[in-house]
């Protein structure tokens, strides 16, 4: 047997290996390991170089950015060309940032949140400057949002500028204190007061009318009024027969009496001289009788005890004593507005605010709506700015049946009001309001967040976010309640 042995594994080292062989074996093992490492490295290097080459060969974005709409996707620095434009164009791009403002002429309202500056408003000034085509205004918002407070500030702050204020019917009686504070007249109507207004009064005669024109105007006004009152009680339009009966009764009354009053008209309707009209006017007569002998007696059925003083800075009719019943209220408003109308419709009467607070109560009555609509259309001619205060724009949609005249009248009231002041709205109202006014998504989002006294003013297509600011005296005088206890929210 030789000294050499066969080894099945390197783990088993020969027992008597010579040093020389051991060294040679270790060196051979090291050489194998080194060769293997070199091969792995070389392979990794080749793969890396191939990756790099592939990456270099692929084009993701052109160095100068892509042409066309994707131009902003550039690996390099973003550079934009300078752009200059008119504020009208910018107002379209950034509706809340680039509003040029309405100028400084007008009544101070408060702070404009977008510009931080003072917000002033005066419908006559805006009308003269061609920014609006009619000076009418609607104010909408939830209870306690500050709608009445704004209307009161707007009116009272206008008085020093020579404007006068008429409130043809105040169902809550909240304008009484305001009228008295500015040296105006508040006429309280209702049971328990001795005040009477005769809606058939001729009223002050406008300058520039001859006798014949004046007679025709007064006759037309009286006919309209008596017709509207009858329609409100009957809850339908007059028939041609009733029309004639009313007309004859009115003409006879006016011919016979120096001061015609409603009871005379009712008498003549129920017992006309021409007995063929007895049947025709019977229903109308009984309808009108409500104002004379029914629950509304004692307010509009005698000669006026108060004279309309067109020079007073503010006149309000306080209907709070009779405000529970909407039909009654609407009749009173109709009489009251007719009584005021004679003075209102004087083109030389100066610039006047006519304020319909809590107007949603009046919307249910087409006859009253028709009168209001007529006033709104004539607003420019007579120098009147009408203000309609209600809760939500959909109040106007709830008037009458779909497609009815009343609905059309209500929509035309809104269409004729180019200033819409929207206070906080209930969530379910956001959609309809935004659609009606064409609000942007941002504006719509704001509507449910507005705090007390904050409103979105839409003047034609322009928008302003305004906080109405009040001085302590106003707060004390205009305060209606502390029901909500809501604090003013700060906008950043
Ligand atoms: N801009 C305002 N700043 C502080 N208080 C206000 C403001 N606007 C209204 N208020 C207060 O909020 C209360 C309710 O306002 P009001 O105008 O009667 O609400 P609305 O008519 O919308 O129901 C009032 O007491 C009023 O003093
Ligand atoms: Mg109110």
List the helices and strands and how they pair.
Blueprint: H1 19-57, H2 87-93, E1 107-112, E2 118-121, H3 123-128, E3 137-140, H4 147-158, E4 164-170, H5 176-181, E5 185-188, H6 211-234, H7 240-256, H8 262-270, H9 278-292, E6 314-318, H10 326-344, E7 352-356, H11 366-382, E8 384-390, H12 405-415, E9 419-422, H13 430-437, H14 441-447, E10 454-459, E11 462-468, H15 472-478
Parallel strand pairs: 3-8, 3-9, 4-6, 4-7, 5-6, 7-8
Antiparallel strand pairs: 1-2, 1-11, 9-10, 10-11
Helix pairs in contact: 6-7, 6-9, 6-10, 6-11, 7-8, 7-9, 8-9, 10-11, 11-12, 13-14
The structure holds adenosine-5'-diphosphate (ADP) and magnesium ion.
Please provide the ordered H/E string of secondary-structure elements.
HHEEHEHEHEHHHHEHEHEHEHHEEH
From the 3D structure, determine the CATH topology of one domain.
Rossmann fold
Q: Structural class, from secondary structure content?
A: alpha/beta
**Terminal Cα separation, in Å?**
103 Å
| Envelope shape | elongated
CATH architecture of one domain: 3-Layer(aba) Sandwich
- Largest sheet geometry: 11 strands, mixed
**Small molecules bound in the structure, each named once:** adenosine-5'-diphosphate, magnesium ion
